[in-house]
Design goal:
Radius of gyration: 20 Å
Largest sheet: 3 strands, antiparallel
Distance between the termini: 31 Å
Shape: globular
Oligomer: single chain
Structural class: mainly alpha
Number of helices: 11
Strand content: 5-15%
Number of strands: 3
Length: 290
């Protein structure tokens, strides 16, 4: 087998992440697994660790190709901090698509609970050492600080903003480290929310409100500019009182390619983009399973 260098793996990681080449990342991951297995390197060696970390980064990128929740739990518990070393990587989007594919909301909540508990047990270092005494450094320590300051119930939006602005720990963090804490808080909060609540339901839903076509997502509503572009989604006639009334997405009557062409017309931070992206990823994940 040809030599597989760290530089080559880093190049593949950067390319796959920046170009959303999940299939390429999966193929590179499989090659790396076989290559490392055949090298028989001592697992406590620096060389093995360097290769193993690149292998895990590839797994993060191609996580859509893994359907066993155990794979997600493993990454959350043992490798969460490595996700910050991947360019343009959004860990929540991977978790969200896996959850969306689980149509039974009770089962979805059970999986979310497993993901939540995995983060609570994560001993990865989240931020470097600061001079501040008792500054949390590990993922699990930051989560304990969230709960101590924000409580065990649903995180209050105002309290969360105050925490991120006024916490004696957070306010002295460098921008990069504060961003890591915010991302962890965001993921942890979403995992704590029941998928049977409007705020915790992962699917974007298209519906009609007062005769207008809108996208409903986590309690937020945004009017659809071009209804014909989103014809593959459900139309629900009124805002549901609870998410248990929401039907899961039907199988799309449009080709994935058509949705991929449509998504280019929307800003990445718009709800329309998010709804289309969810449907594209859901269809692709279904294709992989078949």
């Amino acid at each position: 087998m040809a030599e597989l260098t760290i530089e080559l793996l880093e190049s593949e990681i950067n390319y796959a992440s920046q170009n959303s080449d999940f299939q390429g990342a999966f193929e590179a991951y499989q090659i790396a697994v076989d290559w490392l297995k055949n090298r028989n390197l001592p697992k406590n060696s620096v060389e093995y660790k360097n290769y193993w970390e690149r292998l895990i980064k590839l797994k993060f990128i191609c996580l859509d190709y893994f359907d066993n929740p155990d794979d997600y739990v493993d990454l959350l518990k043992n490798y969460f901090s490595l996700s910050f070393q991947i360019p343009n990587f959004d860990f929540w989007s991977k978790l969200e698509i896996e959850l969306i594919y689980i149509t039974d909301l009770d089962e979805r909540n059970r999986i979310k609970k497993r993901f939540q508990e995995a983060l609570e047990k994560c001993e990865n270092i989240l931020i470097p050492e600061y001079d501040e005494p008792n500054m949390p450094r590990k993922v699990s320590a930051w989560i304990k600080d969230f709960i101590f300051n924000l409580g065990l119930d649903e995180f209050d939006t105002v309290k969360k903003m105050e925490y991120l602005s006024n916490s004696k720990f957070v306010k002295i963090l460098r921008a990069e480290d504060k961003n890591r804490v915010q991302i962890l808080l965001d993921i942890y909060e979403k995992l704590r929310l029941s998928s049977r609540t409007p705020e915790g339901y992962e699917n974007s839903v298209v519906m009609k409100i007062d005769g207008k076509n809108v996208i409903y997502n986590r309690g937020a509503v945004e009017e659809v500019r071009h209804w014909g572009d989103l014809k593959s989604f459900n139309i629900i006639q009124s805002v549901p009182q609870s998410v248990s009334q929401l039907a899961p997405h039907p199988q799309s009557i449009s080709k994935t390619a058509e949705l991929e062409a449509t998504i280019k017309d929307y800003a990445p931070n718009s709800l329309e983009y998010k709804a289309l992206k969810q449907e594209i990823d859901r269809l692709k994940k279904g294709d992989k399973k078949r």
